[in-house]
Specification:
The chain has 319 residues and is α/β, with parallel strands linked by helices. It contains twelve helices and nine strands. The chain has a six-stranded parallel beta sheet with strand order 6-5-7-8-4-9, with helices on both faces. The N and C termini lie far apart (45 Å).
Length: 319
């Protein structure tokens, strides 16, 4: 096989994205495929055997496509591009971007994330199931924020069941809002990342954005709103039925959770798997299942998820 270098002409933005800060992205690509990556100007040069060059070229082109769309390219995006090149998965097109995001547009990083965004656009109720770090909540928040900013909905409501891993809200100091806000911190962080602190504060003060425990939704009809039920694996069957039946005119809902991370005293009481089993296939409802390869946090998170999945398989559990 020929080992002659192959040159790929790219835009300046794409070359910077492929190189990464202090050549971090180049190092990831070289380690993944056993090739030499150089950026001589006007593009990228790949040296190595033909098969390795071919896979590296696919990864480089995926990264370049993302950069040319004006999207941010981080280490996680490079790892996803490498994974897609290895598996032969097609790169994601430009039509999936959401016009929100404090640091630019929000776009899916994996095929399952793209499928999830498609479902959110097309269906009134979407379940997003999978491990931590797969973007279930972040993408739902981004989609909901986009609907709010465009005027498609009047409110964005994010709710979580008030079940804690080892601690109780009642022992926290302060009034009810002060007790609840720390528990909702992951949601506030996502909203701040997408909208920015100032816009989030203004819209929260106007009542356009509400974050509250599931119990606060009882007895309400949620009309013209995008509702996100986060950490839904910790909702009981009764709570899940209650929240799913809150949908009113012009409302849509995303329900996200990890069925392997149930903090209820009796895990079989979880309403998430029960609801999916009852409702999957019903018109207007979609289910997206994320896997370890969809993890876009630290690369160690993917390996941790795979280790736990392997342990569950050895024990004969289905999740």
């Amino acid at each position: 096989m020929s080992r002659a270098p192959e040159f790929i002409a790219l835009s300046d933005a794409a070359v910077r994205a492929v190189a990464g800060t202090n050549s971090r992205h180049v190092a990831l690509i070289e380690d993944a495929f056993g090739v030499l990556v150089e950026t001589p100007g006007g593009g990228v040069s790949l040296s190595g055997d033909a098969r390795a060059r071919g896979q590296a070229k696919k990864a480089v082109q995926t990264i370049a496509e993302r950069a040319d769309q004006g999207l941010e390219v981080g280490d996680a995006d490079v790892r996803v591009a490498i994974g897609q090149a290895r598996s032969g998965t097609a790169s994601l097109g430009a039509g999936q971007t959401l016009p929100v995001g404090r640091r630019g547009q929000v776009a899916p990083k994996t095929p399952n994330q793209a499928k999830y965004l498609d479902a959110l656009k097309q269906c009134e109720l979407v379940f997003g199931l999978g491990p931590a770090g797969t973007g279930k909540t972040f993408l739902a928040v981004a989609h909901g924020a986009g609907l709010l900013l465009s005027g498609a909905v009047d409110r964005l409501i994010v709710s979580r069941p008030a079940v804690e891993a080892g601690e109780r809200l009642g022992f926290l100091p302060g009034d009810l809002n002060e007790k609840v806000d720390p528990y909702m911190a992951p949601v506030w962080e996502a909203l701040t990342d997408i909208l920015g602190a100032d816009q989030l504060r203004r819209r929260r003060e106007k009542g356009e954005i509400e974050v509250a425990p599931i119990a606060f939704l009882r007895g309400r009809t949620l009309s013209h709103a995008f509702v996100i039920v986060d950490e839904a694996q910790n909702a009981s069957r009764a709570q899940m039925k209650m929240v799913l039946t809150r949908l009113g005119e012009g409302a849509r809902m995303a329900v996200t959770g990890d069925p392997t991370q149930i903090d209820l005293p009796h895990p079989n009481d979880s309403g998430l798997a029960h609801a999916v089993g009852l409702l999957e296939g019903v018109k207007g409802i979609a289910v997206t299942r994320f896997e370890a390869e969809d993890v876009v946090r630290h690369p160690l998170v993917e390996r941790i998820v795979r280790a736990y999945d392997a342990d569950a398989a050895r024990r004969g559990r289905t999740v």
